[in-house]
Design goal:
flat, four-stranded antiparallel beta sheet, 387 residues, 18 helices, 45% helix, 18% strand, alpha+beta
Length: 387
Amino acid sequence: MRSGKFDESLKKFIERKYIEDIQEDYLVFFVMFFVEMYCHSIYEDFESKGCGRPRLPVKNMLTLILYCHIIKMFSPGKIADFTRTDSVFKLIMEGINVSRTSVSRYRCYFLDYYTEILSKSLLFAYDYDLTDFFRVAIDGTKIKACNSSFNYITKKDLRRLLRILKNKRYGKEEVLLLKKPAQQFYNNGNMTVEQKIAFLEEAKIQMRIYGKKKIPLYDPDARWMLNKKNKIEISYNIQTCVDTQAQLIMGVYNSQNANDYFELSSTVKIAIENSPVKPNEVLADAGYNSETTFVFLNKEEIEGYIYNSTQSRIDKGKRRTNPFSMDNVTIHYEENYIECFMGYPMFNLYAYPVSDEKKEKTGLPLDTKRIYVNTEACKDCHLEMSV
């Protein structure tokens, strides 16, 4: 799985005694091969950019950053020290010593190429038959934002701050009426008055759109969400699409919505853009079961295996015992009718979108309400007679 050029480089380093203690099947050779064969467009594009300070070899630095992320070594100081002492790091850098500042700097540079590197890794896996991306799974997790739950600005303080900043005649007494986070924001010397006003105006728009009464001070794009520990924190809802065969991440989507109801389509679109082939099947839990999800999957001609809330409760042993519950109704999706708990078919009479001002403001699709009716069956039902 190595090219002739790579073998020549390997032989050269064996002769220099840099890698005399490294096995030929070591992970580093896999990373070096990937960078050499698939990432040349990345480091060529990087090298073609304008001149600045003297640069380290871009290909070697990309290999170093990727290798360190794979082995979960993130400390710039440790990485810099290892390029002087460790044979694997000497192999990667061809004996060039690297400073901790350079490690941090190049790591930031390569962030702009994250999507392309991800796409190249999927192409690599496909070319060498590691997976065919036939089946993928979607899931979401709440990640806490870099903002304390106590550092937020209320709607009342936001309005007061705008009055103070726009009208200089207000004095210190007005500022003292603000809560502590709002006072800290007002006294922040790193922002000009114009920047503070612009920040607050944008926060005001966000509050109006999402119907919020307070907004995080240091991460205004984050939202209050309930995590799996039943704790409300300022968080993001990170959506991930993963190939089920090779467990490769195909796409990541950062959502501001607290639930997963409308997130499948956006996540799968990103995965399709990154992947060399379109997946045939998508797996997801009951949180993604929505009209929007199935419309998207039908349009993309992808088979969806998505739980509904009833199936989820059955698996957890929490099926509802109430005979009138939807847990006791059988849904026939292809024939477009439901079978009630008494065994009678109910046919779809009409459907209409449910008006929701918040969803209209944020651009989310409206829920569709469907009415199922069978007048004759209901007339003869003994439950109807007993009501």
